[in-house]
Write a sequence for this structure.
């Protein structure tokens, strides 16, 4: 539980008028904000700033709908402990309490915890997977095989009744009618897709004299195309 420090703010009397100094006004507002509860706030991370000498990490949360912004600070130790590797554009849920930095009159959210949300989480996972595969040398140029100029037998891994299947077959028949296409239909979306695509590739590997394999997936929402 966070204790609330009550600060007595004095005003200067000018006749029947009470006037607060800027310092007193800011301290009063800062004290009042301490009464508000902790909340979750969703937004996109921008202007992330950190330095080894700073005790806090600073960034801005931006509402992607209308551009509204709020500054956020978070203790550096807590931020580093989360290991989120945040970058501009990542969407997060920030848990914290509103506060006013009285010395400058800056309103901000004092974050106590951060969690990735929505596509930000998916994109982060995708980047981690890409780095892992790259570290295994799977994207190395020297491992790539030269494609045949005129493939006679083509393997096609795709979904059943998918637009991608029709597009690929139409393209092959139009550009190189003599080619023979062996189709291995499989799931191309959902939790079963990865294993199903691997199994389809195994089946095609058993086909003799196969020159090349095409793995085709049609359009869809960005979320649907994520692994």
């Amino acid at each position: 539980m966070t204790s609330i420090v009550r600060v007595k703010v004095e005003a200067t009397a000018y006749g029947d008028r009470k006037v607060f100094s800027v310092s007193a006004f800011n301290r009063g507002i800062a004290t009042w904000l301490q009464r508000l509860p902790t909340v979750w706030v969703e937004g996109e991370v921008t202007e992330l700033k950190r330095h080894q000498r700073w005790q806090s990490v600073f960034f801005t949360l931006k509402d992607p709908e209308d551009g509204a912004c709020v500054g956020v600070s978070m203790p550096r130790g807590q931020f580093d402990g989360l290991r989120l590797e945040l970058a501009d554009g990542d969407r997060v849920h920030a848990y914290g309490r509103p506060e006013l930095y009285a010395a400058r009159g800056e309103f901000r959210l004092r974050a106590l915890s951060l969690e990735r949300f929505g596509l930000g989480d998916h994109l982060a996972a995708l980047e981690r997977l890409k780095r892992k595969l790259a570290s295994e040398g799977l994207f190395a140029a020297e491992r790539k095989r030269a494609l045949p100029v005129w493939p006679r037998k083509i393997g096609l891994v795709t979904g059943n009744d998918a637009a991608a299947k029709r597009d690929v077959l139409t393209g092959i028949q139009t550009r190189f009618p003599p080619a023979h296409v062996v189709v291995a239909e499989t799931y191309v979306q959902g939790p079963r897709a990865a294993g199903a695509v691997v199994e389809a590739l195994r089946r095609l590997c058993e086909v003799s004299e196969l020159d090349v394999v095409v793995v085709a997936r049609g359009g869809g929402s960005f979320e649907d195309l994520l692994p």
